[in-house]
Please model this.
Amino acid sequence: MPSRYTIQRVVRADVGAGKVYDPKGMIPDPQVRTRDMVMEMHHPKCETVARFAQPIKLSATPGGPRSSAPATRVHADEVLGDLGLGDGEIAALRNKVVA
Model:
């Protein structure tokens, strides 16, 4: 972590610089919270999860996540069907994984 003195020198020299966070350090930062960079979302298994929002804010096309990540294997049958596997093959694979 650079010292406060180093940061002041960089700022005075008009060098574009900023903090570099790990995810845990980013979440409580007041600037991050003010810019709505962290949002709370409902998740079916974890209840509420914090996730990072869209970093670029555009008025006409704001973007951002619409839902939480799906649970494991939720779309497995659909994906395997799209790959050309039939219902029997998918069921056999599912039985093989569970066993």
